[in-house]
């Protein structure tokens, strides 16, 4: 998806807010309001329209069920890979295989663009690396204490990579 209209923006905003408030690791800690998430979504939409990011959209019966963002590098030396951000499935639809459908779509988009591998980060202590391991992602490093979930609750940031 390389264009986002107002209707789609509203569904993306609801999705990102609801997933965050259900405890998802997508850049926020609960509670968050749509107004707090909106500037971050609008920054994504702007980069999508500039061609710097691609939106992988998961739809069920025409409604947004989840999404992920593929962030392309502006560096000419880094055009053969990209970073996957904000991977999420709506809370009421999680656990039914849609995360797998979404990641399969992300990989198809990346392959179609000629990318050779992907990078993503995971919040330590969530166990989410097990989800990504199923697609071939392996940890190659971690930044200790990079994510301050709350005062006194610093988490490592795990860096994963996956060949395409
Ligand atoms: C992570 C997320 C996208 C997975 O989507 P989902 O629809 O729940 O996952 P699926 O039902 O497709 O599960 C696919 C596989 O991953 C496993 N899995 C799913 N969530 C997992 C988790 N949190 N930890 C470990 N394994 C997980 C499933 O058991 C399943 O394994 P199987 O194929 O061996 O049965 C979804 O739970 C979500 O949106 N979470 C909140 C947002 C978030 O934290 N995103 C991660 C950002 S790094």
Can you characterise this structure?
The chain has helices at 6-21, 34-50, 98-112, 129-133, and strands spanning 53-60, 63-72, 81-89, 117-123, 138-150, 153-163. Strands 1-2-3-4-6-5 form a 6-stranded mixed sheet, with helices on both faces. It is α+β, with helices and mostly antiparallel strands and 164 residues long. The protein has one domain (6-163): Aminopeptidase (3-Layer(aba) Sandwich). The protein is globular, with a radius of gyration of 15 Å. The chain is 32% helix and 35% strand. Strand 5 and strand 6 form a beta hairpin. Residues 19, 24-26, 87-89, 94-100, 122, 127-128, 130-131, 134 line the site of coenzyme A.
Low-pLDDT runs? none
For the record, the count of structural domains works out to 1
Q: Got a strand count?
A: 6
Tell me the CATH superfamily: Gcn5-related N-acetyltransferase (GNAT)
Rg, Cα atoms, Å: 15 Å
Approximately what portion of the residues adopt beta-strand conformation? 35-45%
- Kindly report the CATH topology: Aminopeptidase
- Helix-strand pattern, N to C? HHEEEHEHEE
CATH architecture: 3-Layer(aba) Sandwich
Q: Which outline best applies? A: globular
CA-CA gap between termini = 20 Å
Q: In this structure, how is the largest beta sheet organized? A: 6 strands, mixed
Q: Which kinds of small molecule does this entry bind, naming each only once? A: coenzyme A
Describe what is shown at a glance.
The protein is α+β, with helices and mostly antiparallel strands and about 160 residues long.
List the helices and strands and how they pair.
Blueprint: H1 6-21, H2 34-50, E1 53-60, E2 63-72, E3 81-89, H3 98-112, E4 117-123, H4 129-133, E5 138-150, E6 153-163
Helix pairs in contact: 1-2
The structure holds coenzyme A.
């Amino acid at each position: 998806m390389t264009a986002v209209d107002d209707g789609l923006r509203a569904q993306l905003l609801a999705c990102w807010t609801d997933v965050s408030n259900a405890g998802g690791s997508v850049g926020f800690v609960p509670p968050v309001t749509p107004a707090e998430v909106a500037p971050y979504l609008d920054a994504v939409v702007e980069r999508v329209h500039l061609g710097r990011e691609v939106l992988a959209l998961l739809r069920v019966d025409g409604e947004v069920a989840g999404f992920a963002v593929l962030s392309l590098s502006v560096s000419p030396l880094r055009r053969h890979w990209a970073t996957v951000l904000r991977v999420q499935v709506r809370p009421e639809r999680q656990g039914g295989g849609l995360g797998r459908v979404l990641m399969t779509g992300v990989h198809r988009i990346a392959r179609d663009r000629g990318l050779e591998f992907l990078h993503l980060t995971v919040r330590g202590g969530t166990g989410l690396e097990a989800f990504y391991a199923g697609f071939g992602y392996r940890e190659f490093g971690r930044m200790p204490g990079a994510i301050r979930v709350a005062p006194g609750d610093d988490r490592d940031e795990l860096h994963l990579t996956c060949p395409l």
